[in-house]
Amino acid sequence: MKATQSPLFGSVDEVAERLEGVGYLASTAVATTVYLADRLGKPLLVEGPAGVGKTELAKAVAAATGSGLVRLQCYEGIDEARALYEWNHAKQLLRITAGQGHESWDATRDDVFSEEFLLPRPLLTAIRRDDPTVLLIDEMDKADVEVEGLLLEVLSDYQVSIPEMGTVTATRKPFALLTSNSTRELSEALKRRCLFLHLDFPDPDLERKIVLTRVPELPQALADALVRTVRVLRAMELRKVPSVAETIDWGRTLLALGLDTLDDDAVRQTLGVVLKHQSDQVKASAELRLN
Amino acid sequence: MAVTIPEHGLPGHLVDFVGALRRHGVAVGPGETVDAAEVVGALDLLRRRELREGLAAALLRRSGQREVFDTLFDLYFPPALGVGAQEIEVPRAATDDGSEGPVDVDALRDLLADLLLAGDEEGLRELARAAVDALGTAGATGTGVQGVNGQPGWSAYQALRLMSPETLLARILDAMRQDGDPTDDFTDEVRRREIRDRIARFRKMVQDEVRRRTAEQRGREQVAKTAVPKQAEQVEFLSAYAEQLAQLRRTVHPLARRLASRLAVRRKHARRGQLDMRRTLRRSMSTGGVPMKPAYRTRRPGRPELVILCDVSGSVAGFSHFTLLLVQALREQFSKVRVFAFVEKTDEVTHLFEPGAELSGVMQRVLREADLTAFDGHSDYGHALGSFAEFWGEAITSKTSLLILGDARTNYRDPNLAVVRRLVGQARHAHWLNPEPRRQWGTGDSAAHRYADVLPMHECRTAGQLADVVEALLPV
Which residues in B331-434 belong to E strands, given as ranges? Predict the structure, then answer.
């Protein structure tokens, strides 16, 4: 591994600043782990509830550092051919037919397994890029356990072995970020190679700032009331607690309806925006004395 | 290369810290310790919050471990030594000679009310630090110093009793109302919950502070042994308090999802390689009798009917509630779920567990709405099982899995083994989940061993154990 690669960030504060510059407000935890992931050259595993900005973080890091974002979206049944590379069989066949008669088999075989016939998939793409790269492996928990094994080589040594061609090693380590909703436990081997960040709901100050950056027309006092109410809702035992995305949606809804205070009437009308289950709405209404 | 191994200093300290984490059930490997050392090297040690997050990133691998980590981090990397820099002056009663007098509790409460009203987190932490110190060294007016032999004594109980932050709630709410916010019921309720949350956090700050001071006096290993909270999965159902149970219930859905996805993997592996001869031969007809494409047997996962009989009396209720939530979350694994609750008598409560129903207060509804008691409200397994067999006996068929939840403590009444034997005979499978530790089975009025002779009984003291048992019981 080439150790000469210069780090993307100089200090923890710089991380926070530059992320803020592209519209992502980072908590201390986020800024510190991003800084360390970059410094120690380790992939970052981000876990947390839906809607707290896990994928957004990768996009923000890419934007803040001017890197290209390569994204591997995981799903059930994803395999090597979709994640790493694939040979372009059709093109190989064409090549063989074209060369028939005036070329020896050895030459054809060597030619057919060369760069030209390789279809790189996200992981290989990220490793072969010369420019700074952020590799986002999204919803890792949706993929099957076998895919994790595939990732181990990529994430620990930043290299891919292709039997017909040899090993492709990264000239420049990508900044790797994995996200997971923890629908299943990832394997120890994969976790061991990563730094771990549990991304939770932000504290009230930060959330207020996030809402105000996303919905700048929202009055300060209303944003404050919104964030306080959402925090109270999160403390209840609900089936689905509102996330940051829902707070933002709520702000937009209130604006669109022209409501400027968050009183009981306003909440009664718009509770459906933050609570998506009927039983949650009934419960919250009862507990917050809306009826 | 010769390496001198430091026993003290930063590396030694880090290793101690990792050792403490391991003792509290956080599995940290040597590789992670090395990562942590790199983290310490890359960060500015004077910035404690960054160090905390950095170490957490390197050492933790699961989200449930954070509370344990935070408490131990505070013990091993304390924010201050001794009193620390005091930014808040604790009000004290006047003394004749001008020395530091005992703490003026009323004035202290005024200060606390102001900070709670403003929601000033840093201020509250400073106040907790100063108040614990002052109350420990000088005592409050009228109580005197509590320490032994002139040694200061730190006590969260004493500090919180004197300041009693809960009783400030009404006062703070009044002050907020006067600020001219709208005063409808809803805003009031939101405020009340917010202040309650702040008070709870202040209580925790006081407890943290006391833990830190005690650790200075008695050594941190001593304090770590008793004062570090358990991870949710390792909390014992029978000794858990309401808050822990509520926290545990939040983990039900992730747990159920994990079980379901593990089950899916098991099913996928189990299905592999079962050749269906009849279909393969039939298929080979089109290729002139040569079996080109083998056909495999597809197994339909059995979806059993589930009948749950659960003890909902007193201490077992927490365990029953959690298990019912878990079953509810795994609902799609069963074709039909029927739930029966019992204390002295049995009653069906399936309607309370319908999909989409509100489940967090369901146990209270079970106790209120179902007909469960006859005489004294103590559990009577014999009679309850008897009445189940009498009125709902037909619920158990050869397709049914029967699950009994309870501690098998019969209050010295007849365990009614004959009925249990009959029910077990009718059902396809039958299991008993017992939240008591195995060594207490059969002691006192427990009929656990006698029931265990009739049907398999599993120890389910913690959510972790329960998950393992339930996973093994789910059909492949």
Answer: 336-342, 346-348, 400-405, 429-434
A133-138/A175-180 β-pairing: parallel
Q: Which pLDDT band holds residue B4 (cuts at 50, 70, 90)? A: low
pLDDT band at B429, cuts 50/70/90?
A: confident
What is the rounded distance in angstroms from the CA atom of residue A277 to the CA atom of residue A274? 9
User: Contacts of residue A11 in chain B, CB cutoff 8 Å?
Assistant: 44
Q: Look at B35 and A28 and tell me if their CB atoms are within 8 Å.
A: no
**CB of B49 closer than 8 Å to CB of A28:** yes
**Domain extent listing, chain A:** 12-79+125-198, 85-120, 204-285
Domain ranges of chain B: 9-76, 105-226, 251-300, 302-473
Distance CA B427, CA B425 (A): 6
- Nearest-angstrom CA–CA distance, A93 and A245: 49
Return the amino acid letter for A114.
S
Task: For this complex, say whether ipTM is above 0.85.
Answer: yes
* C-alpha distance from B42 to closest chain A C-alpha (Å): 7
The minimum CA-CA distance between B330 and chain A, rounded to whole Å, is: 14
What percent of chain B has a predicted confidence (pLDDT) above 70? 89
Tell me whether residues A237 and B56 touch, CB distance under 8 A: no
Specify whether the CB–CB gap between A30 and A56 falls below 8 A: no
Find, among B306, B328, B327, B263, the residue nearest to B399 by Cα: B306
**Cα–Cα distance for residue pair A164/A71, rounded to 1 Å:** 26
Q: At what angle do helices B220-227 and B185-218 cross, to 10 degrees?
A: 140
Q: Which of A85, A99, A89 is nearest to A165 (CA)?
A: A85
pLDDT band, residue B300 (cuts 50/70/90): low
Q: Tell me how far apart the alpha carbons of residues B328 and B350 are, in angstroms, rounded to a whole number.
A: 11
The answer to whether the beta carbons of residues B465 and B473 sit under 8 Å apart is: no
pLDDT tens by residue, A244-261: 989 999 999 999 998 888
Distance (Å) from the alpha carbon of B72 to chain A's nearest alpha carbon: 18
pLDDT value of position B272: 64
The pTM for the full model equals 0.78
**Burial, A53: exposed, middle or buried (Cβ in 10 Å; 0-12, 13-18, 19+)?**
buried
Residue A30 has pLDDT above 90, yes or no: yes
Average pLDDT over residues B375-382: 82
B63 neighbourhood in chain A, CB within 8 Å: 47-48, 182, 198
Residue B148 has a pLDDT of 46
Q: How far is residue B114 from each of residues B140, B163, B170, B195, B403, measured CA to CA in Å?
A: 20, 13, 13, 12, 54
Residue B182 with chain A: CB contacts under 8 Å: 261, 263
CB contact under 8 A, B32 and A192: yes
pLDDT (tens digit, 9 = 90+) per residue, B51-99? 999 999 999 988 778 888 998 998 888 887 777 666 677 777 766 555 5
Contacts of A42 in chain B (CB under 8 A): 35
**Separation CA B327–CA B246 (nearest Å):** 17
Whether residue B178 has pLDDT greater than 60: yes
Q: Say yes or no for a CB contact (<8 Å) between A198 and B185.
A: no
Contacts of B261 in chain A (CB under 8 A): 183-184
Residue B219 distance to chain A (closest CA, Å): 29
DSSP conformation letters of A30-43: HHHHHHHHHHHT--
Q: Which chain B residues are within 8 Å of A192, Cβ to Cβ?
A: 29, 31-32, 61
Topology adopted by domain B302-473? Rossmann fold (3.40.50)
Q: Which CATH class name applies to A12-79+125-198?
A: alpha beta
Please tell me which of the candidates B53, B194, B262 has its beta carbon nearest to residue A232: B194
Q: Select the residue of A36, A184, A289 nearest B39 (Cβ to Cβ).
A: A36
